[in-house]
Design goal:
disordered C terminus; mainly alpha
């Protein structure tokens, strides 16, 4: 299949680092850093309380399930009350919740139900926060591809640095300090978002019922073949690829190379994410989804190196390729969504996108163990790589995905009603 990778030659793009984008980027960077610190703190803290791996799973699940249940309503509320208000309110709620968790760890032996409750409320707040990201970035930057790319770089850097910072703080000061630091990141994020000077956006959601707004969001989502085709593919990949890779890679690399090898692999993955984000800054393909999906095929190198039992250096190389390709795809996808969806419905459609993309991930994680026990970890990873290539090639066979065009920098308005 032929892929067009030539760059669109354009006049100089708008300046990226304006006041509002600097504030937005700061908010995302510190928030992502806190998000990457939190799992380490929870893992250590919950296990140290004697709740074991079951307790860790329950606390993490207590956050994921409310998020999945409420994210669609988060999109409706963002369209109704503006995403800025929803995101600032969500950050304020998460600041309080993490402060309460830090206090609970610092002052005694918190019950598992309390930790699950705080985690669940945090999941609801995250569901209120996430749908607004897509529309806020369209208001703070005139060059959405570069903005998405540098945000991906920040995400990769946070993935690299967050766990290390959390481990250091736990060793020096304990779990409460990490939780307090995470709470502080939400305070910084909320203040930065509150300071944004955003132009008003036409809102289609004011008087109608929440159910009516959800239905309208679904119709807008369903009417875009390129979007629901990708999300359908992502559900399959979530079950067969994205979900299983973390537990399977952790088992294999830890058994063969120990904890240090595992750390090197994830460091390579994060470093690859930085490279992929930087590539997203530089390259502007005429058909971003076509090129992004074609590049993402190379992600299969990672599970193949694991399944083949290659030395650690090759496994780290595969992880770096995986990090780079998924980051580059993320830039292409986010920019396409933000530039082809009308602003009045962008938050609701983003909520459907989030729900569809994430719904299969925990299913894949939960099936990884039983499937690898039944057929072996190596065959499971070979199958995962094969499914990835098959699904991506199938996605590229959809004309609406393959032919979706790019918008030039400085012309990122979302004017057309439907791009089928």
């Amino acid at each position: 299949m032929t892929t067009a990778t030539c760059d669109i030659r354009l006049p100089a793009p708008p300046r990226l680092w304006n006041r509002d984008f600097r504030l937005y980027f700061t908010a995302r960077l510190v928030s992502l850093l806190g998000d990457s610190m939190l799992p380490v703190a929870l893992l250590f803290g919950v296990v140290s309380l004697g709740y074991g791996t079951t307790g860790v799973g329950l606390v993490l699940a207590a956050q994921v399930l409310p998020f999945a249940a409420f994210v669609l309503f988060g999109g409706v509320l963002a369209d109704r009350f503006t995403p800025q208000r929803m995101m600032v309110g969500a950050d304020a709620a998460r600041f309080v919740l993490q402060a309460l968790a830090a206090t609970a760890f610092a002052t005694g032996h918190p019950a598992l139900w309390l930790l699950m409750t705080l985690s669940g409320l945090s999941g609801v707040a995250t569901a209120a926060f996430q749908p607004g990201l897509a529309s806020v970035i369209t208001q703070v930057s005139g060059d959405l591809q570069r903005a998405n790319a540098v945000t991906r770089v920040a995400e990769a850097m946070a993935t690299l640095g967050g766990p290390a910072v959390a481990g250091l703080l736990i060793a020096v000061s304990g779990v409460p300090v990490v939780l307090a630091a995470d709470s502080a990141t939400f305070a910084v994020s909320g203040v930065c978002l509150l300071m944004l000077r955003l132009a008003p956006v036409a809102r289609a959601v004011t008087q109608e019922s929440t159910w009516r707004n959800l239905v309208e969001g679904w119709h807008e989502f369903r009417n875009r073949t390129w979007m629901w085709s990708v999300i359908l593919a992502w559900i399959v990949l979530g079950i067969a690829v994205w979900g299983p890779i973390r537990p399977l890679a952790t088992i294999l690399v830890t058994d063969r190379h120990g904890a240090s090898g595992l750390g090197l692999m994830w460091t390579a993955f994060g470093a690859g994410g930085v490279v992929g984000g930087l590539a997203g800054v530089r390259f502007r393909p005429r058909h971003p989804l076509r090129v992004g999906a074609s590049v993402l095929v190379a992600w299969s190198v990672w599970p193949l190196t694991l399944a083949a039992g290659l030395p650690l250096a090759q496994v780290c190389g595969g992880a770096a390729v995986g990090g780079a390709t998924i980051a580059f795809w993320g830039v292409m996808w986010s920019t396409s969504v933000q530039t082809h969806i009308p602003a009045a419905v962008l938050n609701r459609i983003s909520a459907y996108e989030l729900a569809g993309s994430l719904i299969a991930f925990p299913i894949g994680q939960s099936l990884a163990g039983p499937v690898s026990d039944a057929v072996g970890t190596g065959p499971a990873l070979y199958t995962s790589a094969a499914v990835l290539v098959t699904v991506l090639l199938g996605m590229l066979c959809v004309p609406a995905v393959r032919q979706l065009g790019a918008r030039p920098a400085g012309n990122d308005s979302v004017a057309e009603p439907v791009a089928r």
